[in-house]
Amino acid sequence: METPQNVGMSDLNAESSSLPVDHLSLQSKKNIVLVSHGRPPWYGPDGERISDAFVIGVAGGSASGKTHVARQIVKSLGFIPAIAILSQDSFYKKHTEEELALAHASLYDFDHPSAIDMPMFATCLEDLKACRQSNIPVYSFSEHQRLDETKYLYGPTVIIAEGIMALHDPALRSLYDLKIFVQCDSDLMLARRIERDVKERGRHVTGILEQYLRYVKPAYDNFVRPTAAFADIIVPGSNNDVAIELICTHVRRQLQERSNAFRRKLAVPHLYNSSLSRPPPPPQDGDLKLEILPPTPQVQGILTLLRSTDTPRQDLIFFFDRLATLLVENAMQFLPYCPHTVTTPVGVKTVGQKLNTKHICGVCIQRSGCVLERGFKRVLNNVPMGSLLIQSNSSDGEPLLLQVKIPVVLRKRTSAEDSWVFLLDAQIGTGAAAFMAIRVLLDHGVKQDHIIFVTYLVARRGGIAVLRRAFPHVHIICAAVDNEMKEGWLEGARGEGNPEGSGRRVWLMEPGMGQVSAMSFL
Amino acid sequence: MSFPPPPPPQPSIQQPPVSANHSPTVSSKIPSSVMSSSVPTNEFASTNSNPSNSTLPRSVYTLKPTAQLEALYTIIRDKETSRGDFLFYSDRIIRLLVEEGLNHLPVVNKSVVTPTGSTYAGVGFEGKICGVSILRAGEAMEQGLREVCRSVRIGKILIQRDESTALPRLFYSKLPSDIASRYVLLLDPMLATGGSAMKAVEVLLDEGVKEERILFINLISSPEGLNTFCNRFPRVKVITGWVDQGLNEKAYIIPGLGDFGERRYCE
């Protein structure tokens, strides 16, 4: 049997002073997101979400083996992009002074459903299921209190909610795609509990039994065991490998169906597929609603240098910075301003303008978006910067979201709704990465017209038309618009159409500037 | 062909005329006619002085008076602004001014091969440039210049008012030896009476620089100063970020921003 680190509420009644650090680290292990190989698109070409996250509820008595079941599922579903395990322990209510005193005297009933903040549990689960961000409360076992900090969570494809009351609340039950009850013999549960508490916490058997009889057992009989009736599947608390395998097969098939449904709808990277019978008519620039930097002699000269293969690398970096500065200066026009009166050192009052925004932040799409970062900071020097690592899968061009590191203001929905976000990427070709990045921001609650996408180049026949249809209100500013996309090979055999070369197949703009990240970093 | 298409009309880039944003109670503001941008004069970012308006000489070019530009000026005008913010925001304006100034330099057609193997018909920069700052405040614009023109040569001129004659007098100058063959970006943040700027141009002309190859770049100018300067040197192009209301009895620009060099270096 695996070391039962979590298991039930009884932990709470353990000596509060002992091992606070262990308690905290134990807590953090319970909400985990495992990222394996990136998250494929979860939205259709219209920009709307096409599938929810898959939610599994796991209930069962204290020490019945819920955590074991949850971890076995995670292990068995190893190929899944991201899985979060949410523990009911995180959702203990914020206690009043009286409750706190009771808790420290081991007289507070943590095994009663009313001890848990069910509405908050449901809200968090609902947000995660709808692919929105969530901020999970953090409960300290040593202080017997919910802490002010929260843990930000975004983007799991599968969510496992576990706890003795996981199937108790109707609102929670309605969110589950699969309900599991871990059935275990009471004797076995008590035996495990005694063994664990004695071995790991040095407690006396009498104390354990008293607690068990006073709180744990009645809670199980009154609130936990009856919820087994709601379960889709009842799993034995031991020797359950077969049951877990069955569950995983089911989950995999469900996910596969969702992903198949999606692939058919995904139009972004496949738009330029050579098998397409006739190319779509090129969109009119007016329809794309791009803000194009005025083509002054300097801008044209910079673009010429950036496009040329003869430009030395250090020159490239310098001119990328210069152009980015101009782009971001120009993009400042999309922010709101309001009249503002100041007094000058000459002693004269004058009415000018000032920025009328609550939060501004930048997010660059790794890797090539970083090329714009220095220029961005020359214009907005002390705004938080985040990044999204999005790479396209070399076999089918499908983008994969590998890492989300976004500014703190975007992690909370309330502040995200008041934020203006500059999204930076070197070019919009297939538009797949731009599409995904915008979707991530919208998932967080950023308003569409508060997103300002800053980029050097846009391909007219590329994904921009789809992007525009899906997100008509996002501001897009670029330095130039190129006509075509063509297939190319990254590295080495570029332009010679060498299929067995070591390069990766990519879509390149024509005439374009090549792979910006390769040019400025490699 | 891959030459970038002509830009679409850009109605959105143009902010409403500045005058619309001003409350009528403000007397100390630019006359709205000066900054009016209703007549398109130039396909580029800058708008030349409004030709229908005779207040500004023809050789004066201003930045487009957008809300975001006005917000920058509002910060550096505010006497409460910290020195760090003054540096940062004045640098932003200086970069925009230098970018605008460089647009008046010639370019030539130039074809290059892109990494995808196609030919791109672009343009190449033509002509050597150098910067000349009028000490001390003009020196503050050098960093902004260097961020746009890496490793540009910069000469310096020190001009001060001679108390006995009340005329600007040249104290010191150090200029690149081949300055006569270069385009010169003359840097001085404030154009008040225009006295020292005109003296500096005299120095440059004495060195053999051609008048039409001088671009005078400043952040704020007074209408009086602009008129005096441009009447004297009509072929020097003046790039100014904002034309203020005028001068007070001490020849300070109103509303202005105080002493630029003092705020940049000492406060």
From TrEMBL, chain A:
Pfam family for this entry, one: UPRTase
Domain Phosphoribulokinase/uridine kinase, chain residue ranges per copy: 55-237
GO biological process, one term: UMP salvage
Keyword Nucleotide-binding in record: yes
Enzyme class name: transferase
Entry keywords, A to Z: Kinase, Nucleotide-binding, Transferase
Involved pathway(s): Pyrimidine metabolism; UMP biosynthesis via salvage pathway; UMP from uridine: step 1/1
Name the UniProt record assigns to this protein: uridine/cytidine kinase
Species this chain originates from: Dendrothele bispora (strain CBS 962.96)
Lineage, top ranks: Eukaryota, Fungi, Dikarya, Basidiomycota, Agaricomycotina
TrEMBL record, chain B:
Keyword Glycosyltransferase: yes
Signal peptide interval: none
Biased composition (Pro residues): 1-11
Domain Phosphoribosyltransferase: 65-265
Swiss-Prot/TrEMBL keywords: Allosteric enzyme, Glycosyltransferase, GTP-binding, Nucleotide-binding, Transferase
Compositionally biased spans, kind Low complexity: 26-39, 46-59
The species this protein was found in: Dendrothele bispora (strain CBS 962.96)
Annotated region (Disordered), positions in chain: 1-59
Gene3D superfamilies: 3.40.50.2020
Family membership noted in the UniProt record: Belongs to the UPRTase family.
Molecular function via GO: GTP binding; uracil phosphoribosyltransferase activity
The protein, known as: uracil phosphoribosyltransferase
